[in-house]
Amino acid sequence: ELVQFLLVKDQKKIPIKRKDMLKNVIREYRDAYMEIVSQAGRILQETFGLRMVEIDPKLHSYILISSLPCAEANHPCRAKEKEKMGLLIVILSFIFMKGNAVKDSALWEFLRWLRVHPGEQHEIFGDVQKLVTEEFVRQKYLKITPIPLTDPPQFSYQWGPRAAQETSKEDILNFVAKVQGKNPKFWTSQHNEATA
């Protein structure tokens, strides 16, 4: 029952909380929580090639990560999600290459340069601003932090815990190098960080 619950919850790529597992599935078997989760983790791994990873020890929230080798980047994507994941890879690349954090104004300017405009309906991505600020954040691919003492309010974007689990800075640097037609060592500081 827990495996089915986790697989359904993972369809939306929203972190799964321990309290939801207890409330919706485990219920009166709370005392056996660790054993049930451990067994569900084994079934997920052996049957579906998925690892259950805790991304927030305070809130006890988990995500499922594919442990199967993947041909495309590191993302096992359904067809309709590939375009969104492509945009996400570009955003993660921009954040990494700019020192692991970017202001929202810089991110939106970068996306406009790619002809993806916030506030406008995009034929593939739909509402891009909502996709980036809500969906990618809720799925824990991106983390938004308010920048103190800014008027109007400004925000900083960093990689979220799911991004750090599903890809690596080395993969992202190799992606950027391939797009730019350069050796990854061309970007010395990023290369050192990615291979550390």
UniProtKB/TrEMBL annotation:
GO cellular component terms given for this protein: nucleus
Q: Which InterPro entries match?
A: MAGE (IPR037445), MAGE_WH1 (IPR041898), MAGE_WH2 (IPR041899), MHD_dom (IPR002190)
Q: Which residues cross the membrane?
A: none
Question: Gene3D superfamilies under this entry?
Answer: MAGE homology domain, winged helix WH1 motif (1.10.10.1200), MAGE homology domain, winged helix WH2 motif (1.10.10.1210)
- Residues of the MAGE domain: 1-194
This chain belongs to the protein called NSE3 protein
